[in-house]
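Reviewer 2 asked us to include a model.

Predict the structure of this chain.
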Amino acid sequence: MAIIINPHLHEDIKVTRDKFIERVSCVKAIRTNQDGNEEGLTLYIHSLPTFKLYQYIKNAIDKGDFTGLDSYYEQKHFGIEISDKLFSWFKNNELDTITRQVICWLSALYWLKSENRQIMDKQLYLPIVEEVHQVYSTYFENEIDIADIELKKAQEYTKGVYHSACLDYYGSLPPEILEIAELFYGLPENKNVKKLWWFHDKFDIRLHRFYFSYDDWERIVVRQENDDLLRVESSKDIWSKWKHQFSTFNENKSNVYSLFSKEVTKGYVYVIKQTGEHLYKIGYTKNSDITKRLSQLQTGNPYRLEIVGSFQCRGQATAKVIHSLFSEQCKIGEWYTLSSQDVKNILDPNWRTSENIF
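Predicted model (structure tokens):
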């Protein structure tokens, strides 16, 4: 799960980040919405507010701007917790693409469940209905009778039509969250398709929010009254993670919770020798196949090169540390004059550990 925090809360009362932490120092937990007690993001866009919720979530993820969610739920949001797939879907795509993907998915529902079209026409948000009609008439209008088709064949056919529509309508295959394979009941493959599911809970994606009520905000943040907010619906864990990310925001500039300031980048340090010489290249590559790096170096080099060895490391910084240790033996660039013992040490994990090289 990804936790996205609101990094701008202190700006509302015009204090520093540290001063804001002081004002909420009495708090031990934060209110959260509980599973099942309210709707989250819905793929079945039935009103203007549900349509706007997409923009609000996008703003929260991209900008740390929670004003839309605050007004939608009438609460002061400190952040949200969502699945990694939902996070990457919103983070990696423009809102226009996300909206088109949902509309194409709804159009596939409109096609597959003909007896419910009147219901969709009445329930969906009118501008969405109009676009669904347009997409349906362009890509899905040919009616099919899948009652006597085996499940696997029906799934393959409908998936093919759906994917073709997606590619033409918005230029790519659908995200996993909008695949239509689950439209069918899990019937044994030797039985015919009898019906499609049509329940609104299937369209909802739970949105975990953590927040102060407006009254909490007024009492604790503005008037600076003490309240630990230890309530039935509150979470100590989320509160701790929010405080960590909020307090370190100036350093890491990220509104997505992580204990670390950056991702680990693994790679490989290699040692390649120029034959006939004590000349060695100490290099770094992300590719575990060092022979590819060897062939690149060999091109244009009149001397035969050979791989002496390599080891996995935490990143390019490891190679730089080794370079600094042998800086006096550097000939040019990453080429060094090394003894046999030097090479043995570099490739020896025990020696590297003793030198704190990882």
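The mean pLDDT is 88. The radius of gyration is 29 Å. We have added this to the supplementary material.
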